[in-house]
Design brief:
Porin, mainly beta, globular, 14-stranded antiparallel β-barrel, about 55% strand, 4 helices
């Protein structure tokens, strides 16, 4: 286990200043990880589509998210790289190449919504690990802690057209550590040493601009676009570019909506500087005026390796209260979320 040289650490830290999250955290139980949509979000998540914020009820909301998002449960694969049998160790490296990344997420959020405008304060703690299969095979562990203030809003500007914009002011703390492959010994115990990385250094203040729109193509059929990180830049070895996401939503009767969407371009995201892209499908069913159920699936590609996960959300809305519960199926610690709102 070795530390990255100081120069490399500074380059990586600089490169990550304005990067969005590896798998954007579905705070306020509103996002693709929990069977929902980003382009046609519920309007609660400030990392959703700002054009949809008018869909959210006025009030104050608290949210908590915790769990892992991984290509697959690679604990056993990492253990097999330490096998004294060279054949078994080589086979494990091949498996690791097909499942090269892991991400752990913990996040909290507090927001105020009024007439389609949102002011949100959130904190996200991410631990990421990615396998580099080059000649000097190593695991790159990253930790990113971001405190974020988001402000923005949106809604209808004319019949059938909604627009929205938001700004994020972010304070980042970053940490890195690597584990190099050796024979025998594999990577040691990276599951605890890299995914469990707790140390960070420095604090950097930055900002990001996001936007979105929805447009009614016909009765019950609408098109949507969301874009993250409009203020593109290149820092260190990471090219930070806007990521566009397009989607189509169709009403299947008065109570059910089907949403299909995808990122239109792959970009490098936090906390590991590799290109990523995702697609999702979601079914929203309003059981009644009080109960809403969402179910769907998301496929995410990270550095060419893809994984598909299913998720679901249950919302209970009354005249004064909103309760939200989200769950994503997983082979390891499942991602889960809870939201409490008063309005």
């Amino acid at each position: 286990m070795t530390r990255l040289p100081l120069l490399s650490r500074l380059i990586v830290a600089a490169s990550a200043l304005c990067v969005p999250l590896l798998a954007q955290t579905p705070l306020f139980t509103d996002g693709t990880a929990f069977g929902g949509s980003k382009v046609f979000s519920e309007g609660l998540n400030p990392r959703g589509n700002w054009a949809r914020t008018s869909q959210a009820p006025d009030g104050y909301f608290f949210s908590y998210v915790d769990g892992n998002q991984r290509a697959q449960d690679n604990k056993s694969i990492l253990a097999n790289t330490a096998s004294a049998n060279p054949t078994a160790a080589t086979a494990a490296l091949g498996q690791l190449a097909n499942a090269p990344w892991a991400l752990g997420t913990k996040a909290y959020g507090l927001s105020a919504v009024k007439s389609g405008s949102i002011l949100a304060l959130t904190r996200e703690e991410l631990n990421g690990m990615i396998y580099n299969p080059g000649w000097n095979q190593f695991l790159d562990g990253r930790r990113a802690v971001v405190d974020r203030l988001s402000l923005g809003g949106g809604g209808p500007v004319q019949t059938g057209l909604s627009l929205g914009f938001g700004i994020r002011v972010e304070s980042w703390e970053l940490g890195e550590q690597t584990a190099t492959f050796s024979t025998p010994g594999g990577f040691g115990n990276p599951e605890s040493s890299l995914m469990g990385l707790t140390s960070t250094s420095g604090r950097t203040l930055t900002y990001g601009l996001d936007g979105g729109l929805t447009y009614d193509l016909a009765t019950g059929v609408r098109l949507g676009v969301a874009v993250d990180q409009l203020n593109a830049k290149t820092l260190g070895d990471v090219s930070l570019k806007p990521q566009f996401r397009g989607g189509l939503q169709i009403d299947l009767g008065q109570q059910t909506k089907l949403s299909i969407e995808s990122d239109l371009n792959a970009v490098e995201l936090m906390p590991v500087p590799v290109k990523q892209q995702s697609s999702s499908a979601s079914l929203r069913y309003a059981v009644s005026s009080t109960v809403v159920f969402l179910v769907g699936a998301e496929q995410r590609k990270v550095d060419g390796a893809s994984v598909t996960r299913g998720g679901a959300t249950l919302q209970i809305r009354t005249d004064s209260l909103l309760l939200g519960f989200g769950f994503q199926a997983s082979q390891d610690s499942p991602m889960k979320s809870a939201t409490l709102g008063f309005h």
